From TrEMBL:
InterPro entries: SCO4226-like. It comes from Alsobacter metallidurans. It holds the Pfam family SCO4226-like. This is DUF4242 domain-containing protein. It comes from the Bacteria.
Length: 93
């Protein structure tokens, strides 16, 4: 089965004020859970704002993402499947 791409919005108050060590610990915890759930889920990248994380994941389905959230303790406030991608070069194609 091909993994689908999702954007996960995580409400985490003051996440933008976390220091490097705290973010490293959070990433490590997430990676531990990802290893448990592999190969059904992969973390691509995350964007940190003041009070939210926006994460890009590849997964079989939203249920796998919710399971990761439950085990890791990081909320999955909203899960949205990516249907298509566009970029500046889309206009030239």
């Amino acid at each position: 089965m091909t993994l689908r791409q999702f954007i996960i919005e995580r409400d985490i108050p003051a996440v933008g004020t976390m220091g490097r060590e705290q973010l490293q610990q959070a990433a490590g915890k997430s990676n531990d859970v990802l290893r448990q759930l592999a190969p059904d889920i992969q973390w691509v990248e995350s964007f940190v704002t003041d009070d939210k994380l926006f994460c890009v994941y590849l997964a079989d389905d939203p249920a796998t993402i919710r399971k990761h959230a439950e085990i890791s303790g990081f909320p999955a406030t909203k899960i949205t499947e990516v249907r298509k991608r566009i970029d500046p070069m889309t206009a030239a194609r």
